[in-house]
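User: tokens in, sequence out, please.
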């Protein structure tokens, strides 16, 4: 796909997806940017050379959420009858949370500025969130007379706990990076100029691990949120049996015994 609303590329096993509409603060404005985000997730899933994906925004904002002007003018996904708008959401922006949920590659949100509404939810769709000191977060849907329409009710509560998610969703309050760290919405806060380098550093540490095992570990962690302990143990036994028959497992064990650095080939 020829990307115009995002930038997407990779090197050294690390992909970077950058929302690239700084003139509208990287708002998710129409199906074109949705198509491109979904395509990038698909590319990361299908390319076994990609082991981690960083998500960030161009310019001063991470993502300002939905386009307020389009809401006012009832354009794009906000146009039509209630039934048509429902389908616009299902066939439009709601494809993004599904794409991230189905992505086995670990993801890191490099939150470089405000992450508001759907932008906050996009950050929460990522496995790890690292914030610039300039980051702001807001589950602000009620402030514009809406409910979280793109998975925020699912992702936010899993990030910060049910009670805190309710508070943020009910008040629409925008919080700064330090508060986001205190409530465990982000794993760390770094100086703005260091953000991408820090995310690449963390991504590099993750990417140094066996790639197929990483994907299985992520999927198991997500599946475990919805299963009983006996079901988790059964799934873990099956995954573990697969791991024991990979070349990377044997490489890791040999390297540990021989006190050398392992070289993983994804086999």
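Assistant: Sequence out:
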């Amino acid at each position: 796909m020829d990307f115009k609303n995002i930038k997407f590329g990779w090197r050294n096993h690390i992909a970077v997806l950058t929302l690239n509409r700084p003139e509208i603060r990287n708002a998710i404005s129409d199906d074109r940017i949705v198509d491109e985000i979904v395509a990038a997730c698909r590319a990361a899933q299908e390319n076994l050379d990609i082991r981690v994906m960083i998500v960030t925004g161009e310019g001063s904002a991470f993502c300002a959420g939905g386009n307020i002007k389009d809401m006012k003018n009832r354009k794009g996904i906000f146009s039509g009858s209630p039934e048509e708008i429902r389908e616009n959401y299902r066939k439009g922006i709601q494809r993004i949370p599904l794409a991230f949920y189905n992505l086995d590659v670990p993801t890191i949100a490099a939150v470089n500025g405000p992450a508001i509404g759907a932008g906050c939810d996009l950050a929460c769709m990522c496995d790890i969130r690292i914030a610039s000191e300039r980051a702001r977060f807001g589950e602000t849907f009620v402030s514009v007379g809406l409910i979280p329409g793109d998975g925020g009710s699912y992702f936010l509560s899993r990030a910060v706990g049910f009670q805190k998610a309710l508070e943020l969703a009910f008040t629409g309050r925008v919080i700064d990076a330090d508060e986001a760290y205190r409530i465990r919405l982000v794993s760390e806060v770094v100086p703005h100029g260091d953000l991408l380098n820090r995310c690449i550093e963390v991504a590099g540490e993750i990417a140094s691990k066996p790639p197929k095992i990483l994907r299985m570990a992520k999927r198991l962690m997500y599946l475990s949120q919805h299963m009983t302990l006996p079901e988790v143990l059964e799934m873990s036994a099956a995954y573990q049996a697969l791991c024991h028959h990979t070349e990377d497992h044997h490489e890791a064990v040999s390297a540990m015994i021989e006190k050398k650095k392992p070289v993983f080939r994804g086999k």
